Amino acid sequence: MFTEYTGNRQFDLQLNRYLGPILDRPGMDPLTTSTLARIRSTSQITQFAGRMAARFDAEGDAAAAWRLYCLAAFYLPEHDQRKRHFIDAASRNFDASHTHLAMRRHTVPYKDGSLTAIHWQADPDDRARFPDAPSTLVMMNGFDGYAEEIISFALHFPTRPFDIIAFDGPGQGHTALAGMPLEPQWERPTVAVLDYFGIDNAAALGVSFMRAAAHCPRISHVIAFDMMYRLLDGLTMPLPRPLRPIAEAVVSRARPAWLIDGLMGIAQRFSADLAWKLQQARHLTGQDKPSDVLRALGAYTMEPLDGQIHQPCLVMAGDADQYVPFERLDDVRRALRNAASLDVRAFHEATDPGMAQHCQVGDLDRAFAIMCEWLQAPMKSLHNSLAV
Questions:
Q1: How far is CA 204 from CA 14, 80, 217, 222, 288, in A?
Q2: What is the CA radius of gyration of the chain?
Q3: How many angstroms separate the CA atoms of 28 and 300, rounded?
Q4: Which of 212-219's residues contact partners 24+ apart within 8 Å by CB, and which partners?
């Protein structure tokens, strides 16, 4: 279920994302019904989450503490010393809360630095029961996550017949915090991870990024969780409609940079969503001016991949997604027209509000049940479009 805690769509998305798995903790009910309703700023979320994380940490509830530390860090800029403190505390508590699982953290060498990866071994009984499932699933991070959160999504799989590897690529999570910027050639970090673990064949679940599938033949299946045709859309969607064509023109260099720099500087004062997305995009790309950020993000698009992805594909999409325009689904279908098979699961807020949110955050159990069933089924070499 997706809960509207504050009435601010951006705030509510992150609160559902991090609080959903820990709502059963004692004392959470009055907090979610009273405290959260009064939140009006990102600083209030940071204060709330930091206070609650410290409480659960002191009580020894590491599983709740690591999620709250992530939320406390979420809206902080990279130069704020509290961000690294919160992320270090999140990692420490994550490791402490998963010692009972066959899960291990790895450091994958990449260029002049390294990528954070977490490997979780398959359940042997599930592997024996589902021989058609891929032996490994690689879960790729997105615009604002950390490897810990990405692999924690896998707890929602009803069965786990495959090894799971989640990693922070360039410009993501721990890697971004270490100063490595985003790069469009996503097959490069993907190949580095596959080589490190000695993997010849793996399914890929991309939280927004699909480029690797077109350039890495070792990827056998592709899941878009959820779809992302163009990363730039996430930054332009919060803009007032009259500004969106100007932003597009800046990317194509048809309009002067100073125009969008000035306009976005004003617009972000009135939108916490835009202010945070611009802050995060600066952090990931290493750019400062809004115009330079827009141009950098313009490289992250499926348009050049049109017809180049041939693996079986599953696409998840929702019409309440605040990062991805739902009308992009037609573009995604066109780009994946040569896929061995194409299953599209489209969810609508009017009938399925939880699944219609970004990454189906309102009902992750159901979302991962759909993805798990798809991975476990024998693949058919035909085009097949499903709407849910």
A1: 24, 33, 11, 5, 32
A2: 20
A3: 39
A4: 212/140, 212/186, 212/187, 213/309, 213/311, 213/313, 214/187, 214/305, 214/308, 214/309, 215/185, 215/187, 216/187, 216/190, 216/191, 218/191, 218/194, 219/138, 219/190, 219/311
pLDDT in tens, 73-106: 999 999 999 999 999 999 999 999 999 999 999 9
Could you give the CA distance from residue 72 to residue 45 in angstroms, rounded to a whole number?
Answer: 7
Dist CA 77 CA 86 (whole Å): 12
Percent of the chain with pLDDT over 90: 73
In degrees, rounded to 5, the angle at the alpha carbon of residue 156 between the alpha carbons of residues 150 and 157 is 100
Whole-prediction pTM value? 0.92
**Beta-sheet pairing, 342-347 with 103-110:** unpaired
Q: Residue 315's beta-bridge partner residues?
A: 224, 344
Residue-wise pLDDT tens digits, 146-178: 999 999 999 999 999 999 999 999 999 999 999
Residues 321, 309: contact at Cβ < 8 Å?
A: no
Distance CA 297, CA 278 (A): 11
**Cβ atoms within 10 A of the Cβ of 388, count?**
15
